[in-house]
Specification:
Chain lengths: ~280, ~270
Amino acid sequence: MNRTQARRVKSQVMTGAVMACVVLAVLPLVLILGTLIVRGASSLSVDFFTKMPVPAGETGGGVLNAIVGTLLMVGTASLIGVPLGIGAGIYAAEYPGSRLTWVVRFVADVLNGTPSIVIGVFAWTWIVASQKHFSGFAGAAALAILMVPMVMRTTEEMIKLVPHSLREAALALGYSRWRTTLQVVLMTGLPGIVTGTLLAIARVAGETAPLLFTALGSQYLVTRLAEPMSALPLTVFGYATGPYEEWHRYAWAAALVLILLVFVLNIAARAMAGRARAANG
Amino acid sequence: MVDVMRDLPQAVVPGAATPAALPRMATDKLSAMYGKFTAVKGVSLDFAANQVHALIGPSGCGKSTFLRTLNRMHEITEGGWVTGRVLLDGEDIYAPRVSAMALRRRVGMVFQRATVFPTMSIFGNVAAGLKVERRTDRGTLAERVEQALRQAALWDEVKDRLHKSATALSGGQQQRLCIARALAPAPEVVLLDEPTSALDPMATQRIEELAYQLKRDYTIIIVTHNMQQAARISDTTSFFYMGTMVETGPTRQIFTAPADPQTEAYITGRFG
């Protein structure tokens, strides 16, 4: 075997090995999606999205309360968490050398690595225990705490990616510092920030542990954040751990809906990122 | 915003005759520092109105830092500070009551690399500096954008796609767009910091012709690495070396009969 052949064989072996890794990495996702579709899709119907759960033993009904609860809590969490995260990210990017930035960045990194159940216990202590009742707001607050560090770090990184020359160009036109930051720097980094924010929203939409201690779950259609509230992950948890076959099918279907929601958010994030590249390219 | 009244576009008359004795801009024993490092040492220079004044010298000689003191961009650099005076129409721009933001609208700047705002359209880029001053009505805004684009010799190339993204333009067009953006607020002085160093020869030639034409309406100060460029377009040339201004004089004289041996060594290509 001459050297060219040896190289070719080596190249093929390595390519094969890398391909095998790719397949192994993607396999779990394919299996999860496949199982969800096989076991959940049959229970999906218009009723599933528009009807309330029915008592055990009866067939039919849906998870409207969980869908509404997830949308309300994730929406509220975003309203609290996104502005806070973006604001903190702007600060960290604008004052990279300050002591406060160091502290904020450190806290954000610790929070990012904190298991979500710990956040849930924290929210329980501060909101549920002090108000003496579970509530959708407590759930939203827990999710917001999870979102802030993710949004903050994305914002900071995206702002840092904006070339310094753009900032100088704006200042040289007589822009004030705040105007430069908001109208030029933040706007230039915005597609990336939106992408990161959508990913953060998708992440918290699937969180279960923090909601167990805060929103608790509810069989009713609740639209007041002051009351205990259902959510898709809680429904999955409740149905999956229940004793009935019917419930198990519903758990699969609810899980499918949840993953579709996350999927849509991810695709939206991809689309934004693509647009950002097109605009900057 | 105290200086708003003085910055109204009508108040600025580009090309208005100034007394020959009074330069448009001047520095007086100006030093520029980064922390403890002195990059520019006690430079005194006059910039005559409606002329192109070139600053040449080897890399690191302080010419760019010096340029950035003229619109107070040096002070936004971490640790940047100055001593001495910079006079614009006889007034010290470092006086406490002078707003750096208002000043930068009177002394425009174009950078080495084109810095178009990627989120804004071609129109939006040129209008960016106009929107800072105050509410300008749409008609006036469009008029002044067109005027600036014409001055930057870009109008014919972009008039049909004013509201398209500016990032689709070529490198040379982007740099002319940046010149248009700097011209739109009707500054008195335009600072060009190696404006052609990232451009191909054709685009460079267009910018050079532009600089030459613009002196009718503006006072131009250009930093360049390219000595032929300085020779082609400038009326006055100053040679910087190691943070000091070694020699200044009419361009022809600097390039044919420099008084200082260092200037001669640089111009004949023996260093730099």
